[in-house]
Design a protein that fits this description.
Blueprint (H helix, E strand, L loop, with lengths): L5 H5 L7 H15 L8 H17 L2 H10 L16 H12 L14 E7 L1 H6 L1 E12 L15 E2 L8 E6 L2 E6 L8 E2 L12 E12 L8 E4 L15 E7 L6 E3 L2 E9 H6 L1 E7 L2 E7 L8 E4 L15 E8 L6 H13 L8 H17 L2
Parallel strand pairs: 1-9, 11-15
Antiparallel strand pairs: 2-7, 3-6, 4-5, 8-9, 10-11, 12-13, 14-15
Helix pairs in contact: 2-3
Length: about 375
């Protein structure tokens, strides 16, 4: 297989510093690592190529030989897995991916997650919420270094600042976290009295969060840099706010639309009329036509929820429920009885009943009951 120029593989110049090569390699290894690109043969091959290039360019003697003789000068030193050090492979997997490698420098702060409960009205129209987050913040006394003011952490003498040590077991080299610096690569001999060398301390942080119009349950808002402070002044994590919209007494939401059940009287259903129904931003007049059946849904355009991504708002859908009168007086019952007698015997006033009874009759005839 044709080998590519190692400098081109890593995307660095031929006079790149060791630190630049190391930094670029870590970024590319994270991107193409097999654990992050499972069942992707192209990414696996790219990862091997990146690893091979780094094995050569990170070693001063191999790099000098490669600069002078090209691939011929390093044949056998780095060739797929045959030339790789298994200790380095373990170090990449458990260090860069899982955060256990001290040589990667101070660790970025952890991301935080917070569930924010809001009302339907707040979800529809937006709001600014004040929240309190328990988190780790950078120590102001030592600016996150962990060392007393005027002092500085020193490079660990046991691992040389790499954060890991290697032990030879027969043909294998095993890489482990340095016990002296716990993988940090640095040792603090004179710790800060405020944070006791940790560089961070726990604190409740008050934040103001702007909730946009139209958010719904399950939506997330990301606040960059508002997570936990990183180690030794490293970048902080992010804060992810999960939205949870509380149930509403009148409305149910489905995307951009709002649904509302509206009870109407028997008389209104028969004769028609005008109702005043609620909307989130006021009241709406709803015209009910004569002979309205229960379950009929009326749509009020534009009275729903605005889209969080812009565009027209949804609609308000009002589903009427014809309510059977209760607690009738004797007089009212008498009037209803008289009304019933005026109804036609052929069910022309009750088309659904007529259709249903015809179906029942056919069913009995088919089943020979």
């Amino acid at each position: 297989m044709t080998k590519h120029d190692y400098y081109e593989v890593l995307g660095v110049s031929r006079n790149a510093s060791d630190e630049e090569i190391k930094k670029t390699y870590r970024r590319l290894a994270m991107k193409y690592h097999p654990d992050r690109n499972q069942h992707d043969k192209a990414s696996e091959d790219k990862f091997k190529e990146i690893k091979e290039a780094y094995e050569v360019l990170s070693d001063s003697r191999r790099r000098a030989a490669y600069d002078q003789f090209g691939h011929a000068g390093v044949n056998g030193a780095a060739g797929g897995f045959g030339g790789m050090n298994f200790g380095d492979i373990f170090g990449d997997i458990f260090g860069d991916i899982f955060g256990g490698r001290g040589g990667a420098g101070p660790q970025r702060g952890s991301d935080l997650h917070y569930t924010l409960e809001i009302t339907l009205e707040e979800a529809v129209y937006g709001k600014t919420a004040e929240i309190m987050i328990p988190t780790l913040v950078q120590c102001s006394e030592c600016a996150g270094s962990g060392a007393r003011k005027g002092a500085q952490p020193v490079t660990c003498s046991d691992c040389g600042g790499y954060g890991q040590i290697r032990m030879q077991h027969g043909f294998f080299t095993v890489q482990q976290t340095c016990p002296s610096c716990q993988g940090k690569g640095r040792v603090i001999h004179d710790p800060c009295s405020s944070c006791h060398g940790r560089g961070r301390h726990r604190q409740n942080k008050k934040l103001s969060v702007k909730i946009p119009q139209g958010v719904d349950t399950g939506d997330r808002i990301r606040l960059s840099g508002e997570g936990e402070a990183g180690e030794a002044g490293a970048m902080p994590g992010d804060l992810y706010i999960q939205i949870q919209v509380l149930p509403h007494a009148l409305f149910e939401r489905d995307g951009k639309n709002l649904y509302c059940e509206v009870p109407i009287s028997f008389v209104t259903a028969v004769l028609g009329g005008e109702l005043e129904v609620p909307a989130l931003n006021g009241r709406v007049k709803l015209k009910v036509p004569p002979e309205t059946q229960t379950g009929k849904t009326f749509r009020v355009k534009g009275m729903g929820v605005p889209s969080v991504r812009g565009g027209d708002p949804g609609d308000l859908l009002c589903k009427v429920q014809v309510e059977t009168p209760v607690n009738l007086t004797a007089k009212q019952k008498e009037l209803l009885t008289q009304f019933e007698k005026t109804m036609s015997a052929n069910n022309k006033h009750s088309p659904k009943s007529s259709s249903w009874f015809n179906k029942v009759k056919k069913f009995f005839e088919d089943m020979k009951f």
